[in-house]
Amino acid sequence: MLMLNQQNKNRKKVQKSQILLLGSLLIFLGGLAISYNFIKELRNEIFEDMKQLIAQAKPKIKEENVNNTVPVEEQGVENSNNNAKKNVNYEKYLGILEIPKIGLKKGFYNVDSRYNSIQYNVSVVNGSTMPDVNGGNLMLMAHSGDAYISYFRYLYKLQIGDMAYVTYNDKKYEYRIVNIYDVVKDGYVTIERNFDITTLTLITCTYNDNTKQTVYIAELVG
After folding, report:
1. Cα–Cα distance between 120 and 94 in angstroms, integer?
2. Are 22 and 14 in contact (CB under 8 A)?
3. pLDDT at res. 36
């Protein structure tokens, strides 16, 4: 009888252990399922936010002439596609942007290059011209912030009078910043510049303000 009671007790202990083990396993699996769904939902939200940021960072560009003596309608800006090489080398930079004050030195690709994207690099805006086009405008965009692709993260430190340089076709062009202004981030950016002067325009999100973008206008020196 004593042996039978002991066997029953042992059987109950085993059953109890099995129930606890099964319960722990179910709780663990349930936790994994909840975590997976949470991570999946969070990932989708992050992807959507990134898509919106990318879309907002590619605004439509409108140029306005600040030189009132020459009507904007009469100013023809030659498209950079006319100056681009037909055989695009996707492994070689078209030019290099340097801003010593903020320690920036970054190459950019031809506007037709698959690498010409703010997701990867400093991006050349469609309609830009290279520095050798008299009265043209090289427009460059990049992210600000803390991401590894935020090449314009320190542009907010620039002031009127600071210098920027573009190396293109083995020649270095020198620009001086003459205007800095903010625009509402609504998908459009107005470039206010003098069409008589060769210009470099830099565009990025406004520092500590997600509702605006900042435009830096620099004019060719000499």
Report:
1. 15
2. no
3. 62
Token pair, residue 202, equals 């830099």
pLDDT category at 9 given cuts 50, 70, 90 is: low
Question: Which pair of structure tokens corresponds to residue 61?
Answer: 């560009």
Residue of 151, 166, 171 lying closest to 219 (CA atoms): 166
- What does the domain layout of the chain look like in residue ranges? 1-56, 62-220
Query: Which one is predicted more confidently, 17 or 79?
Result: 17
Residue 89, burial from CB neighbour count under 10 angstroms (0-12, 13-18, 19+): exposed
Which amino acid, one-letter code, is at 175? Y
Block residue for tokens 């011209």 = 129
C-alpha distances in Å from residue 177, one per residue of 1, 111, 161, 182: 99, 23, 5, 15
pLDDT at 19 over 90: no
Beta partners for residue 174, in sequence order? 165
Q: Which two tokens stand for residue 138?
A: 């090289």
Query: Architecture of 62-220 per CATH?
Result: Beta Barrel (2.40)
Q: Which tens digits make up the pLDDT trace of 124-147?
A: 999 999 999 999 999 999 999 888
81 pLDDT more than 50: no
Residue 81: CB atoms within 10 Å:
13
CA dist 199 and 177 (Å) reads 10
- CA pair distance 180, 170, nearest whole angstrom: 28
* Exposed / middle / buried, residue 84 (Cβ in 10 Å: 0-12, 13-18, 19+): middle
